[in-house]
Amino acid sequence: MLAWLEQFLVRYPELALFLVIAAGYWIGSFRIGTFTIGPVTGALFAGLLVGQFARIPVSSMTKSFLFLLFLFGVGYSVGPQFVLALKRNGVKPLLLAICVSLVGLAASVLVARILGLDAGFAAGLLSGGLTQSAAMGTATDAINGLGLPSADRERLIAHMAVADAVCYIFGYAGVILFCTTIAPALLKIDLKAEARKLEHSLGMDSARPDLASAWRKFELRAYRLAEGARLAGMSVAVAETLVPEQRLFIHRIRRGQHIIDAMPNLMLEAGDVVALSGPRQVIVELIGPLAEEREDRELLDIPVTSADVLVINPDLAGSNLNDISKQEWTRGIYVRSIKRGDEQIPVAANVTIERGDMLRIVGPDALVQSAASRIGVVIAPSGTIDFVVLGAAIFLGGLAGVLATFSVGNVKINLSTSVGVLLAGLLVGYLRTRYPLFGRIPDGAVTLMTSLGLAAFVGLTGIQAGPTFFAALRETGLGLFLGGVAVTLLPQFIGLFFGHLVLRMNPIHLLGALAGAQTVTAAMAAVQERSGSPVAVLGYTPAYPVANILLTMWGSIIVLVVAG
After folding, report:
1. pLDDT by residue (tens digit) across 385-395?
2. What is the end-to-end Cα distance of the chain in Å, rounded?
């Protein structure tokens, strides 16, 4: 039976790949607390296991195709945040990400020199210790460009997979441990107390967490103005300012048998029934005890909608929600969520909006459409992929990567197809914030490209390395694991002191940025859990895209440096 299965997998390598992907996602789903190795490393282990069982042929073209799709998807998804980080957003997290990335590269080269590692082991040390599996792809590209015999190239690629597998688990767990335990102890801070202070500065009421969520929850109710009511005799505009710290709006009024729109200069009268919108808790607690609520379906029959709007208006970039909410065109509009890249940003008065953010706004349909035109453009769900831009960008990016060559000291560096495609993805991702209909790729398609593309590539690398795994592991011994520990922790320690002593970063922002600087999303989530607050994401989002690009590129650099 086992012999038949081995022959089957060798004969049908494409099915073996799907088996590795399924097993990798299954292995990656196991969780211990906040720790999980994830589907990509799971696919590597699954590939190593299958490669031990059967010598499955691996197509280099298939590996390259999958990896280029992944790189373009990564560049496309982080492009807006990467360019913003370079221009203005989150300068301190940006500098921290650059510092951590450079220290990570230097530590990898130093450890590789001390241990006498070849270019394959060195690349795996970097990708595993810095938890950037994508660096294996750029390293593979660089190894294939060294001009070595085929057997030597395969040996180096196998060594890379071994080193990544050895170093990755501590690389992942080490950043979580550092950001949640070691760094707070060195900073002598209480995570919960620091998070409360930061929330307060952002306008989030930690004493009343329900009010923080109320900013996002829209409610429409009807109230009758009794004789002698305070609002009687006031204009709509004046009435709406009576509670300046809250956003309450009058939309329609029933006067006698007639329903009229609430224009700002319209005077309210006793006996009017007003349709009032605002945060639910505010309406219940401030308005409810003072007025008689009415159930008036006709009055309340206002078309209400929500829309996802991409911020492209440069006048809004850099403004906080409190300032934006005071503009006339935001009347009756509420923000339910803010998405920056793949992460949700807290909705609070002093949170700054940046170009490329995705706002989900809610309110009366006409007002939402008007506000959306001021903010940017509504992004409606679409299943259409612009394959012209996708294919052309990958081709032109790869071509540019092949042609671009430069020297660093005595080392001649070719940009490579992989880095070229990554930069092409960045460019297309950035351009869509200026021209939203250009190169549209649905989120689901981008997720498929990035998740499946990298897992399949790494799984194939594992299959290729499987037959030589244990021999290579015996060759490196315990030193490789300890070297990986150094590569993981050294950038974190230096980044912590650089961020705290030089950049003077807020401690919660600093911890979020440290997690982003080594692209460990789980570490940011662990900081959020320990602090009881989502605000660490504000340091994570500027650092992550910059680190993601740099650490991916380091795969090529370390191969060229160590091999040279």
Report:
1. 889 999 999 99
2. 47
